[in-house]
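Risk register update: the risk of archive-format incompatibility is retired. Evidence:
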Amino acid sequence: MKFTFTRLNLIILAFVTIVLSSCDERMYFPSRASAPGLREQFDTKLVLSLKAQSASTDGDTATHKHATSTVSPSVDFAFSPVNHLGLTFSYNGITNRAIDELGTSTNSGVFNGHRFDGGAGYYTNFGRLGFFEGYVGAGGGYLQRKSFYSSYEDFSAHYTRFYLQPAAGIGNSIFMLTGGMRLALQHFNDFKAGDSMLRYKITNRDNYVGPDVTSQTFVFWEPFINFDIGYKYVKFNVQTGFSSQLAGGTIIGSFPVYVSMGIVLNFAPRFVKSGNELPHPPGHRKPSHDETE
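Archived output:
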């Protein structure tokens, strides 16, 4: 049976529809990982992407008079100043993300926010295609919710974040496939809300009073798969992953999966060399002319 491009589009659409069914988010939204896949000195990458997001509107949002969006932007930049050292810088946004849980005011509203991260790590190549990388980093961000039902339920908070991210993959000048995981620790501060008790209720599913959200460290395990395809300098990117909360009161949704798509702009010295080859590993002896005869 012929596998048409139209059928592929339908499969992708069905998958994205399932992904967008996540609900009940309180204060945490999964975001794409910076998966640079650097291979040599002066390797440089810029990824511009949009993450799909649901507009969960069980209630009548037409009466809420709030703008909503189905995408949020991300920017990832990576650079290798010397061989085996990678530097990363990232921006992740949340743009008019609507959550409406049948009138449950503690959960419902329009979320906006942003986060900036910076990291450094080690990478190495194995074979002609394989590579391993490990990064550590830190960042900070801001999250705001405007309630659909009452300004008393509005809140805003700043937070800091630390992460450890190992990954491995294969790639060449045409494609790159990376799989990895991120272990992230996040701490909220400067929490402000109309309801002075919201900081104690927002981490509890049934709105019972619990620990102050600013007194906890939230821990997340976040595996991901990243795929680039194109040719040399410009590629298409898609990444999917999910978050699992390991510690702290519940601030994550019931189905915290994401998909992002975008473009990769990549410069690497090997792209302008004959054969697009990576430098040979230490100890490798290139065959002489006589040996190739």
